[in-house]
Write a structure and sequence with these properties.
The protein contains one helix and 23 strands. By secondary structure, it is mainly β. The protein has a single domain (about 10-485), classed as Maltoporin, Chain A (Beta Barrel), CATH 2.40.170.
Length: about 500
């Protein structure tokens, strides 16, 4: 049986209503019905699972976004966005990756099944006012925008761990709710005909509330500030130079895993100072588009995903992912893209990213106990390079063929160990047919069925190895084919 099967249905709808010359309303609808198997890991790092209780990766989501754009006057444009989504999710897996009776009892094997069922509900609303051509301020030199943003997310978790050796069921229920409210504004000031100064500020109040069936109750709140100063220099009609200095933030939160030590349950806000500069250009009468950006970022209290192993009474180690804070991190790199319409029949495109992302400081008692020091090391899931290059051939007015090769360098799987992936490149292609309002796309990914890995863990789970810590990897999708159908009206 294919215990890692994929059964996914996605339905989208978009309705644009031109109410009059001044008012437009957009409605976007989304329905997701995902019923995938989850059996991604094996004791021998192969695709052949011996689990007797394969898990599930299920999601059922309904969502909508309602947008309005109203030209209230020749001075002011008013925009609003309302979003809502509701999801039911299940994530479950065979906790021992084996079957009962596979190992001799003298090796102290265990058997368990872990199940997480979540109900998640999100909403957000944003109101924004922008200047029109007669609404500029400061002697008609400055475009402006101001707005407010409100959001709320609630997640209810029902977790059950089934100990098949006892047999016992260990339940945990929790509720985690966050709310955000923000005000923001931006000014775009024309210093000269070619030079524009961009300034922006954002202030946000964030609040989080967590409680669970074990009696833990955590509350947290904070006020966060971000901003940006930038310059755009249009030195030629086809060439734009830009640079900016910005301060961003990411709110903290709560790790909802009950087996974590009390000191690991909360993580703090992250702040990022980022300096970037780049150039966007049109060449060959606009048929060639290029974009290159260099950036340098300093992360304070960087939020990082790490893991810890918790010993089991029945043997082995329970592996727990959680969010932590590193004191300081540094990201620098270059991103570049090219898109060239060579002629009416042929288009080619390419993108490359170079990244150097390291931890300058990272104090983690759990890592210190294991003797692992990752200060100065690359951050997890931060490959030194990524790339994509491809072409699109317009066979007829209705048919087009597209193919590309994408890849990335090796990267560390985690901030809690030094295991790394290998570099890889895969080939993808699609064939598209358009007829009036219909579009049919036949696509394939990883056409040459290359084996490569997306995640890796380092812990002890194999009784035959004495529960020695080892690297266990998750394969990426093998060769995959599909069809997408869309109707536009």
């Amino acid at each position: 049986d294919n215990t890692q099967n994929q059964d996914e249905m996605t339905a989208r709808g978009h309705l644009k209503w031109l109410v009059n010359n001044d008012l437009t309303i957009d409605l976007n609808l989304l329905h997701l019905n995902i019923d995938n198997g989850y059996d991604a890991f094996t004791l021998d790092n192969s695709r052949n699972s011996l689990s007797d209780e394969p898990g599930n990766d299920k999601q059922h989501t309904n969502a909508f976004a309602l947008k309005s754009d109203w030209r209230a006057s020749s001075k002011v444009q008013l925009q609003s966005t309302l979003t809502y989504s509701k999801s039911d999710l299940e994530y479950s897996y065979d906790d021992d990756w084996s079957y009962k009776g596979q190992f001799d009892p003298s090796l102290f094997p265990y058997s368990g099944f872990d199940q997480y069922k979540r109900e998640r509900e999100n909403y957000s609303i944003e109101f924004r006012a922008l200047s029109n051509e007669e609404g500029r301020i400061f002697a008609d030199t400055t475009d402006w925008s101001v707005g407010i943003y409100l959001a709320d997310q609630r997640q209810d978790l029902k977790r059950k761990y089934f100990d098949n050796d006892t047999p016992d069921v260990y339940p945990l229920n929790n509720t985690y709710e966050t709310s955000n409210s923000a005000i923001f504004g931006q000014l775009d000031t024309a210093l000269t005909e070619k030079l524009t100064l961009i300034t922006g500020l954002r202030a946000e109040h964030w609040d989080a509330d967590y409680d669970d069936s074990q009696g833990l109750d955590l509350d947290d709140s904070d006020v966060l500030f971000g901003g940006k100063v930038g310059l755009n220099y249009q030195f030629r009609p086809q060439h734009l130079l830009y640079t900016s200095l910005s301060r961003g933030y990411k709110a903290g939160g709560v790790n909802t895993e009950a087996d974590l030590a009390p000191g690991l349950r909360k993580f703090n806000n992250e702040y990022l100072w980022n300096l970037e500069a780049g150039m966007k250009s049109l060449w060959l009468n606009g048929s060639l588009v290029t974009d290159i950006t260099a950036f340098y970022g300093l992360r304070k209290d960087a939020q990082v995903k790490t893991s810890v192993g918790v010993p089991r009474d029945s043997g082995g180690t329970r592996f727990i992912d959680y969010q932590d804070n590193a004191a300081k991190g540094r990201n620098m790199g270059i991103e570049a893209s090219v898109d060239w319409l060579i002629n009416e029949r042929l288009r080619t495109f390419a993108a490359v990213g170079l990244l150097h992302a390291t931890f300058d400081e990272y104090d983690n008692p759990e890592l210190d106990e294991s003797g692992l020091n990752i200060q100065g090391r690359r951050q997890a899931h931060a490959p030194a390079y990524t790339f994509s290059i491809g072409s699109e051939v317009y066979l007829t007015p209705q048919w087009n063929l597209r193919a590309n090769v994408e890849g990335k360098d090796e990267f560390y799987y985690s901030n809690s160990h030094n295991a790394k992936s290998s570099s890889y490149a895969i080939t993808n292609a699609s064939l598209q047919y358009q007829q009036q309002n219909w579009t049919f796309t036949l696509w394939g990914r990883n056409l040459f069925d290359k084996d490569y890995y997306t995640r890796g863990f380092f812990f002890g789970i194999d009784p035959s190895a004495g529960y020695e810590d080892r690297v266990y990897t998750q394969y990426a999708d093998p060769r995959t084919f599909g069809m997408t159908v869309s109707y536009d009206y």
